[in-house]
Amino acid sequence: MPDVTLYTVPNCADCEAVKRLLGHEGVPFVEKNVRADPEALAEMQRRAGVRIAPVTVIGEQAFYGPFDGQRPRILAALRKG
User: Fold this and answer.
1) Quick one: which of 27, 10, 34, 13 has its CA closest to 74?
2) Which positions fall inside the Glutaredoxin domain (predicted)?
3) How far apart are CA 16 and CA 28, in angstroms?
4) What angle do CA 40, 51, 49 make, to 5 degrees?
């Protein structure tokens, strides 16, 4: 299984939804709070080219935007991986 990193901010419904999805799928992931960690923010920007969370990185693929848009892409990447 590829490495999974989830970049989040506090009180973010979409971030929580991605965490629930990954948990439901049994996928271990590393969560990085980009509001509390400037290095995580810089890393997220470098990997995904955006400044807004949530960003889900699976292997080398980065997904961002609202949960409903990320969900099918996350599931497809997990099934391929």
Assistant:
1) 27
2) 4-61
3) 15
4) 90
The CA distance from 12 to 27, in Å, is 20
What's the confidence (pLDDT) of residue 80?
A: 87
Q: Does residue 41 contact residue 67 with C-beta atoms inside 8 Å?
A: no
| d(C-alpha 33, C-alpha 10), whole Å | 7
- Domain map of the chain by residue range? 8-64
Q: Report the C-alpha dihedral over residues 16, 17, 22, 26, rounded to 10 degrees.
A: 90
Distances (CA, A) of 20 to 32, 74, 78: 15, 12, 15
pTM score: 0.95
Mean per-residue pLDDT over the chain, rounded: 96
- Contact predicate 54/6, CB 8 Å: yes
